Every structure is written in structure tokens, then in C-alpha cells.
TrEMBL record, chains A, B, C, D:
Protein name as it appears in the record: GTP cyclohydrolase III
Coiled coil: none
Enzyme Commission number, as recorded: 3.5.4.29
Role summary: Catalyzes the formation of 2-amino-5-formylamino-6-ribofuranosylamino-4(3H)-pyrimidinone ribonucleotide monophosphate and inorganic phosphate from GTP. Also has an independent pyrophosphate phosphohydrolase activity.
Entry similarity comment: Belongs to the archaeal-type GTP cyclohydrolase family.
Keyword field contains Hydrolase: yes
Gene3D superfamilies registered for this protein in UniProt: 3.30.70.270, Nucleotide cyclase
Enzyme class: hydrolase
Reactions it catalyzes: GTP + 3 H2O = 2-amino-5-formylamino-6-(5-phospho-D-ribosylamino)pyrimidin-4(3H)-one + 2 phosphate + 2 H(+)
PANTHER family from the UniProt entry: GTP CYCLOHYDROLASE III
Gene encoding the protein: gch3
Pfam families with a match to the protein in the record: GCH_III
Amino acid sequence: MTTQLTLIQIDNYGPWTVTPEPRREMDLQTLQSRLFADIAQFVGSRGGYVFFSRFDNMIAVTNGIGRAGHKSLQESVRNRYPVTVSLGIGTAETPAAALDAATEQIQAAGSAQDKSRTEVLAGEPLDGDADATTHMAHFDVNDATGKYTDQLNEFDSFIHIERSYASLMEYMREAHGALSFFVGGDNIIAVCPELPTNAYQDAIDHVEDDVGVELKVGVGRGATAHDAGYDAKHALEDCRYEGTAVEFEYPQAATGDD
Amino acid sequence: MTTQLTLIQIDNYGPWTVTPEPRREMDLQTLQSRLFADIAQFVGSRGGYVFFSRFDNMIAVTNGIGRAGHKSLQESVRNRYPVTVSLGIGTAETPAAALDAATEQIQAAGSAQDKSRTEVLAGEPLDGDADATTHMAHFDVNDATGKYTDQLNEFDSFIHIERSYASLMEYMREAHGALSFFVGGDNIIAVCPELPTNAYQDAIDHVEDDVGVELKVGVGRGATAHDAGYDAKHALEDCRYEGTAVEFEYPQAATGDD
Amino acid sequence: MTTQLTLIQIDNYGPWTVTPEPRREMDLQTLQSRLFADIAQFVGSRGGYVFFSRFDNMIAVTNGIGRAGHKSLQESVRNRYPVTVSLGIGTAETPAAALDAATEQIQAAGSAQDKSRTEVLAGEPLDGDADATTHMAHFDVNDATGKYTDQLNEFDSFIHIERSYASLMEYMREAHGALSFFVGGDNIIAVCPELPTNAYQDAIDHVEDDVGVELKVGVGRGATAHDAGYDAKHALEDCRYEGTAVEFEYPQAATGDD
Amino acid sequence: MTTQLTLIQIDNYGPWTVTPEPRREMDLQTLQSRLFADIAQFVGSRGGYVFFSRFDNMIAVTNGIGRAGHKSLQESVRNRYPVTVSLGIGTAETPAAALDAATEQIQAAGSAQDKSRTEVLAGEPLDGDADATTHMAHFDVNDATGKYTDQLNEFDSFIHIERSYASLMEYMREAHGALSFFVGGDNIIAVCPELPTNAYQDAIDHVEDDVGVELKVGVGRGATAHDAGYDAKHALEDCRYEGTAVEFEYPQAATGDD
Ligand SMILES: Nc1nc2c(ncn2[C@@H]2O[C@H](COP(=O)(O)OP(=O)(O)OP(=O)(O)O)[C@@H](O)[C@H]2O)c(=O)[nH]1
Ligand SMILES: Nc1nc2c(ncn2[C@@H]2O[C@H](COP(=O)(O)OP(=O)(O)OP(=O)(O)O)[C@@H](O)[C@H]2O)c(=O)[nH]1
Ligand SMILES: Nc1nc2c(ncn2[C@@H]2O[C@H](COP(=O)(O)OP(=O)(O)OP(=O)(O)O)[C@@H](O)[C@H]2O)c(=O)[nH]1
Ligand SMILES: Nc1nc2c(ncn2[C@@H]2O[C@H](COP(=O)(O)OP(=O)(O)OP(=O)(O)O)[C@@H](O)[C@H]2O)c(=O)[nH]1
Ligand SMILES: [Ca+2]
Ligand SMILES: [Ca+2]
Ligand SMILES: [Ca+2]
Ligand SMILES: [Ca+2]
């Protein structure tokens, strides 16, 4: 069971945003979100997932995408944007360890704000026969519409969602080396190692105790992020129909609940 | 001094994402970020700002954009996306109060997941002669590249940024009715009421005490979000050159520091 | 009755496409069509029209958009694309004469492939009180679906449409100084001076004699391209319902047919 | 030597453009050009080429893209646009015959304006072992900048380019079953069967005699459209350096000129 992660870092972006003058914020927002969208289409149509995280640094699950695919992503960005991107690839048993490796590849080549460090492509993708299996958990707030969106002003709704995200991301990182990303609305997707039902239940309990927000989660696994993530979505629908808090799309061992 | 905010809510989006089957996550991410980018261009080229916040609900500063402009945004979305948007407009002295008003306009017309509630356009824009003045504060982490990006794995860098954001957003909301948004990298932009230097210094101190992240902030004001925000960016550059923590682009009263 | 046209020219684009190596064609196609789409949104949301024509040179009807608007378009392109654009503005009674003026503005500043000529902004927009009136004619092939799309292979359908376009564009240019643009499907939109019904009938007859393709046309006029063009679309719907070849959305003098 | 072509047809697009009211032309232009751009990225990153042709019907060279790839393109369009697309796949020795087959697949399933015909996916892709070889010819006008762009008003420049395109497209179609597409600027790309040097020289002579525009052409071949097209671009650069009219990137038989 190994996951392949890619760190995507815009080269020397900080200085670019203020040279020769600060650039219009709405143009930067447009640039960032379209770059993310393009990468989402590129990676997504090859079975991967990418998360915007900080936008100048994005994290992708890229099982099955080799060096040639990564290179062609760099070329396509260079041909259409005023910025370029460096890519670091890492593989390991846990997502956090894979990201360590991916990040080090880029850091070893120079600073994010090093003018002469551009379009790094470093790290080794999994080879074709490797047993790549990814686990994805799709968390979602219970009745976010009824409790928040339709009740509070939108910023206060957002504060609740944000709190649950902050709480969950730290817990999953610490407890399991899992990487959790807010994906909009009331949804959080976590790239996880293999975990039993009670680990997910504990995470949900933690968030409820910590910030008072109730989550449910669907879990899937697969050879690619999409396969695992899509199963997770189906499992989440099972939570909705069953009124349960944790569902797996695949058979669980002893501790499994479905 | 009055700010005009618009709440942009995708109509009945939750059900759409899972009908007839869950949709591919990377397609949803693409849809959301491109919709945001299009609104950023629309609003931005009219002097406004929009923040992605939860993507299914976005918050915009729209001083100077009237009903006709709002209507034409709705039409353009409807003509090019598989979803529609409702818009609620609110005006008030503090940003939080303006957003209360904006949100209530939409809530009064039905639930975010009400199938028959589409393309609400409610609330009154400021009239042309109104004295619209917006204050924008542009916060930024000191040496984020040296301390985080070039040192930690990217998720752990992100955790630090995220913590500072969670801490600042709650503080500014509580203390001043200000609305703070993460805009990528290590940057947070806050829509604020008029505040003295020490209020900003206290916010920065609070975040440092709370989560150990050092911020600086540039503050601007203007008739539109862009005018105020652009001045804030210049003030932030002043912080960089002067090594200071708080700079205003406009003359401060008694308590001012520049 | 005066029309304002803007020529939008990508600066030094030919050399860029092959430096340092020829760029992937699909990346160039993406760049060009997205740049066009962004300009269509910018200009379109201000009541204007833009036509892709050669993509590296685009022609826009910009009544009502002043220097500041043009400047902000240039800034937005520069901030988000790897290329920049020069803009020439021209105004005159006939569209062809307005485009002469617009083109000369850019040519006077240097060659399209002059490395040092970037972001020209030249020519005077109409001032606010000027009586800007634009006439737009929306031509469409009769039963293109039944005669071509559902019968021939797609390239052969396209040849018929292309022939009708080549024939119409030259005729309208010569006879009336009108500028006709293919806008996809079986549609051609012409920016025209004021013309009587029989002028449009003659154009349609010419195309049928010349290349055997049957057209109909709706004509509108208005202060902006959108106002005129939208009326033209309604007039075209009238042709569909009435089975006529030429319809005006506004009352015609002596020679009018509706 | 076999080419695989895909016809991409927007389902029931004509009626959609005018229901319930005619839609804003600039929104339609944006929709069409972004849909094309997205398909260009999808197909292009898999080695294919797509041409906008009429925008509501686009023609792609899809050697190497199987049914699953086609299906995932349909899904991605459906998830992000207000329209859907049908795809017909055809393979044959000449491009025209391949397009015949591709078009018939879609026509057999119903009219382009049949409300109930959506998301057809018909026709068989080449199987993996098939000897797919595509020939691409990249035509370009000699000194278009000096003779037209810097001299005439932009519409009159465009008329010359358009004439050369109309002349070339018909000639190549008739003489060789080749499909030629205008790709912007002064460039035309033709999907060709295998042809000797003199066939290209004759085409260039024909266009010069017919409409007085001087072309040059680079020819490449490869397993994918990109491989062939990229070689054609290099061959075109050879024309520039050598001052010749026809260059091949690969060794020619007896009649070859390089
Ligand atoms: N990124 C992403 N967001 C989603 C998805 N499904 C729902 N959302 C978001 O979540 C928001 C809330 O939708 P739901 O979770 O269906 O609504 P709810 O009121 O919380 O209802 P329950 O979760 O059924 O209790 C939507 O507006 C979307 O923004 C998904 O698959 N992916
Ligand atoms: N949205 C937005 N992001 C910005 C802007 N300026 C910088 N950033 C982001 O912030 C990141 C870090 O850049 P800087 O703040 O310049 O770098 P730093 O290392 O923290 O250096 P100092 O702030 O100068 O101490 C960049 O990669 C961008 O993502 C801006 O104006 N808008
Ligand atoms: N750009 C643009 N294209 C349009 C518009 N309306 C239709 N089209 C295009 O024209 C194509 C053919 O549609 P129609 O003209 O409605 O169909 P038709 O078979 O020719 O039928 P009639 O014109 O009613 O005889 C569509 O696929 C679209 O590509 C429009 O308003 N703008
Ligand atoms: N689509 C596409 N367009 C191109 C390419 N190269 C050039 N162009 C277009 O062609 C236009 C003219 O560029 P050139 O052909 O280099 O210029 P020219 O003046 O004709 O010079 P020569 O062809 O060298 O005689 C540019 O503005 C582009 O629009 C290409 O590879 N693909
Ligand atoms: Ca939920
Ligand atoms: Ca910083
Ligand atoms: Ca028609
Ligand atoms: Ca040329």
C-alpha cells in the first residue's frame, strides 16, 4: 500500500506578485484559481486529485501519473501562464511521509523564492507494477444547511466550518499522518493510511468535543485517488441513508461496521 | 462610511453535486474555482473584491455595483454554467452588519436547498451619492518562505498558516465585526470598519500569543474595495521596507503611527 | 451615428509562438481561445461585442467603453497571461473607416512584430455625449441542420458555411463598408452602417447566386453593440416565425418591410 | 497508415441558444471558446489535436484515445457546462473517409436538433496495435506581418487570410481528402494522407494563382497528431531558414526535396 504525492509550487511567486508594482488582487485570485482548475482537470482526467491548499503550493495525489505526465503539465503551464511551476514527487506508506519526500525534492533544489530555481522536476514516481493503494475519507457536516447556512450570516457559518476543518486537519495529521483538505461547502477530503472504523469515529468525536460541529465520513480505497474518492462519496451517501457516522465502501476486517 | 456586501450563493448546490450520482470531485473543484475566477473578473473589473470563502457561498465587497450589474452577473452565470446563483445585497456601517443584511435577504426567500428558490436578487445597493468608504487590511506572515515553505513539508507549513488564519478571523470578527479571508500563500485580507493602529497591533499580538505566527499588516481605505485594497498592499510594502508591523496608507489621527 | 471599434493585437506574438522552440499547438489554441473568452466577458459585460477574427488580432465594438476601461483590460491581460496586448481605438460613420483609424493607431506605434512595441493604447474613444448608434445584422443559414449537419460529413457541412461566409464578408465590405464575422454554427454577425431592407436582400441574393447557400437576417440598432445585436436576434426570430428573409427590430422608413 | 477522427457535436445547441429568450452573444462566445479550450487541453495532453471549425461541431484527431477517454470527456463536459456533447469516432486511410464514418455514427443516432438524442458515444477507436500514422501539414503565409498586418486595416488583412484559407481548404479536400483548419494568425493546419512534395507545391501554387496569397508548408508524420504536428512546425521553421516553400521533417521517397 503506497501513495504517490506531488507538491506543485509556483516558482518565485511572492516577488512576482509585487513586481514592478503590487498586482490587482482580483487578477491574482483569478490566476490562482484558474491554475488550480487547470491542474484539477489535468490530474483529474488521469485519476488523480489535487487540493488547492495555499494555491501557491498545491498538493496532488498522483498514483499512476509518471514523469512524462508531470513534464507535460509543466510545459502546459509555462505555455499559458505568466508563471512556472516546480514539481516534487514522493512515495511512502503514509501520506505525510510521501509529502515529506516530495517537499524535500523541491527544497533541495533551492528556495521557493530563488530566482534561478525554475521548473524543478524531481523525485521518482511509483513504477507501474507497484501496489499503489490510496485511502480517501470524505467528511461532511451534518445538516450544514439547516444549522448554519439558512440560520447565520454567511461569515458565521463559515467560522463553524473553518473551526471543524482546523480541528480535524490537526487531529488527523497528528494521530495518523493523514492530510485533510477543505474542498468547499462543508466538505473535507482526507488522504489517509489504512485505518479502522474506530479511528474515524474517534476523529469525529474529537471534532465534536473540540468545536461542537458534527461530522460524518465515508471511506473508500482504490488504485487511484478518484477510485478511492468516488467510493468514499458513495459511502457518504450510505451514511445519509442509514443515518450513520462512518461508512466504508469496502469490506472491513474484524472492526468493520458494514 | 458604509460598506456594501453581496452574498453569492449557488442555488441548491448540495443536491446537484450528488444527482443522479455523486459527481467527480475534480470536476466540482474545477466548476467552483472557475466560477469564482469569473466572478473575480466581473467584480474586480468594477472595483470590487470577492472572496471564495466556502465556494458555494462567496462574499463580495460591491460598492459601486448596482442592481443592473448584479443582474447581469446572474445572467452570465446562467448562460455558461450548469448552476445558477442567488445574490443578497446588504449595506451597513460594519462589514458584519452588512453581511447580516445580505444573508437575511437570501434566507428570507427560502432555503439554500430549496428546489424552487432560484436566482434571488434582493437587497438595496447604496445609491450613487452615498458616502461609501471601505477599509481593507492586508495581513501577511513574516518570512513565511524562510520559516515554513523552505523548511517544513508543505502540509505542515499549511497548518501554521491555517492556524494563524483561524485565530485572526475569529478575533477580528469578535472584536470589530471585521471579515477576514485567506487569499492564498500567507495572505489574509480583512474587510474592516475604521480602526486605529493599536487595534491592528492587538490583533497581531493576539495571533502571535495564540498560535505563534508573526504577522504584519498594511491598511488602506477608499471608495471601492480595490482602491482600499491596493492602498493596503502599498502599506504592506512599507512594512517590508521599514521593518514595521502596522502601516496605514492614509494619514492617521492622534493614534496613527505614520 | 458613430461606431467605436477597438483593434486588439497580441504584441510580438509570432516570434513568441516559436521561442525558444515551437510551442505545442493545443496550448496555443487554449491560450488564444481563453484570451478571447476573457475579452468577450470583459467587453460583453460593458455592452460591447468582440470577434475572434484571427485570434492574434481581434476586433471589438466598444461604444461606451472609455480609456480607463481599455487600460484596465490591458492590465488584466498582463497579470494573467504570458503575452500582452496593444489596443487601437477608432471612431467613424462606417465600421470600415472606424477600423482604419483604429488599425493606424497601432501601426503608427510600430510593427506587430516589433519587440519593443508593447501595450500601445492609442486613439480617442467617443465622448460621453456623442450620438453613438450601432447597427448589427445577424445572418443565419436556413435549415442548416436539415440540409448540412444531418446530411454531410462535418467538414463538408463546414465548407458550405465557410463559402457563405467568404462570399458575404467580401460583399458587405465592398458594398457597404460593413464588417462581417463568423461566430460559430451557421451564424454571421455584421457590424453595419445604416442600410435599407433591399441592401440586406441584395446581400442574401448575392450569396445564394454565388455559392448556393440560403441566408436570412435580423437587423437591430442601439447605443451599444449588445443592444443592437440583441434586437437583431429578436428580428431573426421574427424571420423564423414569419418565414421571411429580412426583418428589422426597429421601424423602417419608406423602404422598410415590416 | 490509419487516422482516427472524432466528431464532437454539442447536443441540441441551436434551440438552447434561443430558449427561453435569445442568449447574450458574448456569453455564447465565451461558452463556445472555453469548451473548445477545455477539449484542446484534454485531447492535447493525450497527444491529439482538436479544431474549432464551427464550434458547435468540432473535429479532433484522436489516435491513441480509446472509448474510456472519450467517455470521460463527455462526463467532464456534462459536469461543468450547461450543454452536453455527442461523440462519433471514425477510422480510415484518408481523413475525409474517417470523418465520413465519424459523422455517420452520430447522424445514425438522430438529428443534431433532436431533443432526446444526447451524449451519443459511437464508433470504434483503433485498437492498440493498429498502425496509426498521421500526417500533418502546417501552412503559413509568407511575411503576413509585413504585407498585411502592418499595412492594411485589420479586416482587410483578415480578408486575405480568409481567402487563402477558403481556397486551400477546398483544394486539399477535393484533391486529396485532406481536412484543413484555420488555427489563427496566418496559420492553417491540414490533416493529410501521405502525399509527395509536388502535391504540396501544387496546393501552394493553386492558392497563389487563385487568390494571390503566398504560402509555405512544413510536413510531419507521427503516431499521434502532436508528434506529426510538432514535426510539421519544425519543418516550417526549416522553410523559414532555407527560404523554401515545402519541407518535410522525415525522409522523402524519390520525389522528396530534402
Ligand atoms: N466539494 C464538494 N462539495 C460538496 C459535495 N457535496 C456537497 N458539497 C457541498 O456541501 C454543501 C452542503 O451540502 P450537503 O452536505 O448536501 O447539505 P447538508 O445540509 O449538510 O445536508 P446533509 O449533509 O445531508 O446533512 C453544498 O452546498 C456543497 O458546497 C461534494 O461531493 N464535493
Ligand atoms: N493573494 C496574494 N498572495 C500574495 C501576495 N503577495 C504574496 N502573496 C503570497 O504570499 C506568498 C509568500 O510571499 P511573501 O509574503 O512575499 O514571502 P515571505 O517569505 O513571507 O516574505 P516577507 O513577507 O517579505 O517576510 C507567495 O507565494 C504568495 O502566495 C498578494 O498580493 N496577494
Ligand atoms: N453564435 C451563435 N450561434 C448560434 C445562435 N443561434 C444558433 N446558433 C448556431 O447555429 C447552429 C444551427 O442552429 P439553428 O440556426 O437554430 O438551426 P437551423 O437548422 O439552421 O434552423 P433555422 O435557422 O431555424 O432554419 C447551432 O448549432 C448554433 O451553433 C446564436 O444566437 N449565436
Ligand atoms: N496557431 C498558431 N499560430 C501561429 C503559430 N506561429 C505563428 N502563428 C500566428 O501567425 C502570426 C504571424 O506570425 P509569423 O508567421 O511568424 O509572421 P510572418 O510575418 O508571416 O513571418 P514569416 O511567416 O516568417 O514570413 C502570429 O501572430 C500568430 O498568430 C503557430 O505555431 N500556431
Ligand atoms: Ca453536509
Ligand atoms: Ca509574507
Ligand atoms: Ca440556421
Ligand atoms: Ca507567416
